[in-house]
Amino acid sequence: MQGTAGYFGWLEASALSRAMRESLWMYPIVEIVHIIGFVLLVGSVAMFDFRILGLSKGLSVQRMGRHLLRWSVASLLLIVPAGLLMFSAHPQDFIGNRIFLIKMLLIVSAAINAAMFHLGTYRRVEQWDTQVPAPFSAKLHAGLSLLIWVSVISCGRLLAYT
């Protein structure tokens, strides 16, 4: 891992990285923005997943999806820049941290799971949009989504202790 970490030496020496490390308030403020973004993302994803798992069967899955997707996409405007700023403060530490790497793999897994859901089971959503239980494959994707996002959050918290 040490060889890979050296690739980020230029970033760690940058003015942005120094500002993130040296400012009393910059890193905590950026971290709060990151957390708010994750609340929006995971909250909207969880609401959709719980609907697929059978809660609030009277609500249209399609309408919920259209409404919550906006919040999920908007959350990325907070999460991604804030995450990159936090990474810039200690890139070599993060890239060499197994928990950080697991967190990144989990995020990629969440994206793959969502893509598979939308390209597969969700294409027939009109058959189970309201009052009909979602098919097993949809429930499997929803359950996996919840598990992955709880794991991402857990890894994020564990980063403070590793």
TrEMBL record:
**Protein name per its UniProtKB record:** DUF6644 domain-containing protein
Q: Which residues fall in a coiled-coil region?
A: none
Q: Where is the DUF6644 domain?
A: 7-161
Membrane spanning residue stretches: 24-48, 68-87, 99-120, 140-160
Question: Which Pfam families does the record associate with it?
Answer: DUF6644
Which organism's genome codes for this protein? Keguizhuia sedimenti
Lineage: superkingdom: Bacteria
Report keywords, A-Z: Membrane, Transmembrane, Transmembrane helix
